[in-house]
Amino acid sequence: MGKAKERSNMDYFFHVGNAGVILKLEGQWVGIDVFTGREIKPYQPMPETLEQKLLCDAGCPEIGLLVITHNHRDHFHPQKVSAYLKTHSSALVLAGDDILSILAEAGVSASRFLKKERLSDRDFVGRYGVLTLYLLSTEHMGNVYRDVRHYSVLLQYQGQALFVSGDAKPDRRLYGHLREYCGKLRVLIAPFPALGLPGARKCLLEYYRPEHIFLVHFPSPGEDEEGWIKSTVESCRKMGGELPYPVYCLEAEERYPLHLAAD
Fold this sequence. Notes:
InterPro entries: RibonucZ/Hydroxyglut_hydro
Strand order of the largest sheet: 6-7-8-9-10-11-12-13
CATH class: Alpha Beta
CATH architecture: 4-Layer Sandwich
Structural class: alpha/beta
CATH topology: Metallo-beta-lactamase, Chain A
Protein name: L-ascorbate metabolism protein UlaG, beta-lactamase superfamily
């Protein structure tokens, strides 16, 4: 992170493992589902060396805002989030009330929670610097997880919209819900089924044609017993020109530029 050769004004996101990303947007650093448990096979957690650098404030840019989509160990580790907040006194958290309650029980002061306003009986909005962030209540993939409280994250930045779907089910309800707040989508960051499944692609196309798509939440290459990586790549090759070819975020600690110049 923060290599000298990068232009200081460049927007990008940094994939830290599994579904975790850090976004750098005009000097604002936002981490989404950054701190997870170590044992989340077949998925890959953040490399321990990077995790320790972040937790110990060892030469990494400060993530000023941590956003958490839901309370699953491959997306949220309360002790690590609490430890990060202790070593970064100005950092804040944006999450659902269930997550905030867990952090409060761990001793985190409510003053560390970004103020959010209720938009409806299920959605919220918060503002952080130049960013407006929407927490949209969405359904988790998989029927066994239907009762999990889950939020996807819409970021509005310089007139551009970036959507980080978390583990949301990639169906018409997801994109129809997003359409309530966003007419045009510039960047989609989503788990691999959102594009790897033909039915999910069809649902996306009914509402949006993002200019950039980044796929995350892949299994570690050495743990991919179901062949999800190969099948996703093969499926996306059949898309033709209907959607932009995605970036496959297969390795942790990779950085990707975000070209977000205003139209």
